[in-house]
Amino acid sequence: MGNMSVVTVFTLSGFGDITDYRVPVFSVTLLCYFVIVLVNVTVIMTIVFNRIFHVPMYIFLCNLCINGLFGTAGFYPKFLMDLLSRLQVISYAACLFQAFVIYSSFCIDICLLAVMAYDRFVAICRPLQYHSVMTKQWVAQLVSFSWIAPFGLTAGAIIFTFHLRLCGSHIQKLYCANWLVAKLSCDATIAYVTLFFYILLAIFIFCSYMQLIRSCFKSLENRGKFMSTCLPHLLALFNISIAGLFDVMHMRYGSNDLPQSLQNFLAVEILIGPPLFKPLIYGLTLTQIRNKILCRCLKRK
User: Fold this and answer.
1) What's the rounded Cα separation, in Å, for the pair 301 and 295?
2) Would you say 75 and 171 are in contact if contact means Cβ atoms under 8 Å apart?
3) Of 30, 44, 76, 201, which has the fewest beta carbons less than 10 angstroms from its beta carbon?
4) Global confidence as pTM
5) What CA–CA distances, in Å, run from 288 to 43, 53, 113, 136?
């Protein structure tokens, strides 16, 4: 225990030349955050205040948008403050909390998309059993699982990191990531349990959609259902998969040889793409949601 380094503050060394363009970057970031909040809140309010949307698919979508607000709240306020600060630093506790919020949100997205894949599988492949399977109690349990499991797994990874001996305090990123904090450890041990869990979820999602596609092409009616309700899920899944891949590539294989601007793009894509495009994808492709939003906008005019 005598060799344990006392690290109380981390330096976020990913800013680089960004500080030379504080005002334009701050303005663009603030605008981006405003749009993310606006589109997610619009979808949430549309679902909450219209009883026709109080069905499993839209309940899961509502949780997806709530999670988008939760995850971005862990990054944008701190990033905006850092742009206005002379030093970009964060306390040890705040760093771990930020990592918990950002990465538990990403994991919740994966869980909700897995649940939505299951919901569409039952709706299209087992339509006569849908209402007996997707009961209110079962939907509540699925939503609870989608939040509690990622919270528990991410918290476990954070607690594991908290007990590591650290031999550095510089994080090569615009925000804290549990993997990067663990890499500062004097030990070489890093837990892979959380990664294994989400690989299983990814396999489940893939198998569900393969079964859906195979079933849908047998029937013209099912093909129409797939295009109208499953296509947005696939687009959202593709979006979050690309974002996650960029983030993993940046943390696991990132190199100082890459331009800092490219490293920053790989780092923030996970915090721009999914929370911005998910509500836009669903709002534009799901006819009922789109019509309700347009109807409300026209009434206000």
Assistant:
1) 10
2) no
3) 30
4) 0.84
5) 11, 9, 20, 21
Contact indicator for 57, 286 with CB cutoff of 8 Å = no
